[in-house]
Amino acid sequence: MTCARVRSQLSSYLDGDLGSSVARAVGAHLEGCPACARHLQSLRAALEMLADLPTLSPTEGIAARVFDRLEVETRGPGLAMVFRSSRARRPLIFPSLVTAGLLVVTILVGAVALDRAWRSLDEPLPPVASWEGRVLPASGTEANPLFPSADVGLPRARPGERVSQELLAQMAEGTIFLETVVARDGTVSAVTLLTGDRLLAQPLLDALRQQKFEPVRLRGRPVAVSVYRLISRHDVFAYKSIPSS
Amino acid sequence: MATGEMSLRSAEVLPGNAPDQVLVERCRQGDPSAFARLVALHEGMVFNLAARLIGDAEEAKDVAQDVFLQVYRTLGRFEGRSSLKTWIYRIVVNQCHNRHRWWRRRKKDCSRPLDELTPADQARLVAGDRGPASPYEELRRRERSGRVQTALSSVSFDHRAILLLREVEELSCEAIAATLGIPEGTVKSRLARAREALRVRLLACLEEGDRT
Questions:
Q1: Cβ–Cβ of A69/B69 closer than 8 Å?
Q2: Residue pLDDT, tens place only, A21-59
Q3: A62–B7: do the CB atoms touch at under 8 Å?
Q4: Which ranges constitute the DSSP H helices of A93-183?
């Protein structure tokens, strides 16, 4: 058996997949050929090192994030729904709007006022009007952070928790549209990229997930809200006239 | 309270050893605790495989979420011809492959190597049952892991996938064939080429490490 033939069989030899006569021939060759024996040794060592790689564990529960996303997707009349269903193929509205953006512009829409304010303090948070016949979870909860009130202000980031200007300044030219769900305790329960380049947005998404806000209250009651951010960066160069000679 | 939180708590109700078929059936009936249980059972495997395939822990978190969303949406199509785990392996490999193609198409590679994880990530590295190691031993082990990951990342995606499924996840060739949707003979020949490619790249990485 030639060295090349033996080396082509080493993988099967290690797995014990060779027939007995071929295995014996390979074994005999390996005993008499130091080069092929070293080849087998280095192959075995490489596979052992691969198998010995430490197991990586996620730093945060994946389940909670998955449930957040399922909630966001099924909760109903939010901008998220409009954009999520379409973003894979053709974003609906924004490309035509964002081309007008200059430098870095951040728009915080906050809680979307859909129809009316509550009549009294005691009245429970009402469900938002059903969407395609489905009744939605109570408004102001993490499962439905869109609710009918114009009385809710934007959540304020806790001191030292603002997204740094440096991070925004590092962004390449482009536009992203994000939804952040701020839970009732002020933590961020979900950040969803609605439109835009994921690679462009990734550092910002990571930073936003770690952000902490002052809990948003509506008449003394903590509520969850959605925050929408449109961030557009376009470099602008001043026109420099060339002096005529 | 978010429904997701409720679901996670009620997951405790489901026995930990519920067989796949029971879990799948209960998921199909819309039982959120069954799906929470399914995620809890497989999230470690999904994250580790995705992180090793992509070589980027942050990206792997997103992939892991996408994998379980796909599992949730397509569970109705799971026919039970392979095990649930094999089916999930297939989704992980496909999701990672899509991301890999996406990066290549844009000629971008912003991956952050796994040995450059944040301190919090590093602290979560599970070193198996080797017991406490000295700082020197720990450093050496990390260096070696870094080189193995570099070598692994330098082989083709198909080779990386088959190596991880075989050597790390310890799947049989038959199970790998079911996972990747290729004949068993192809698995064996691809595995042989992948092992040789890894051997060559790893030797080069180790020699380079010794020189520096």
A1: yes
A2: 999 999 999 999 999 999 999 999 999 999 989 888 887
A3: no
A4: 94-98, 165-170
Strand A221-223 with A105-108, pairing: unpaired
CA B165 to chain A, closest CA, distance in angstroms equals: 10
Indicate the pTM of the whole model.
Answer: 0.60
Query: Which residues in chain A have Cβ-Cβ distances shorter than 8 Å to B60?
Result: 56, 58
Over 90: is that where the pLDDT of B18 sits?
no
Q: Which of A49, A52, A69 sits opposite B202 (nearest CB)?
A: A49
Q: What domains, with CATH codes, occur in chain B?
A: 15-117 (1.10.1740.10), 131-212 (1.10.10.10)
Residues 6+ apart with CB under 8 A from A93: none
Tell me which residue of A189, A219, A188 sits closest to A125, measured CA to CA.
A219
What is the CB-side half-sphere exposure of residue A150 using CA atoms within 13 A? Answer: 3
- CB contact under 8 Å between A46 and B1, yes or no, is no
Q: Is B198 close to A42, i.e. CB distance below 8 A?
A: no
- Interface A–B counts its CB contacts (< 8 A) at 150
Question: Which residue in the block uniquely carries the two structure tokens 């042989």?
Answer: B192
Residue B204 has pLDDT above 80, yes or no: yes
Q: Does residue B167 surpass a pLDDT of 60?
A: yes
pLDDT tens per residue, range B50-99? 999 988 888 888 889 889 988 988 888 887 777 888 899 999 999 999 88
φ/ψ region of B128 (left if φ > 0, alpha if ψ in -120 to 50, else beta) reads left
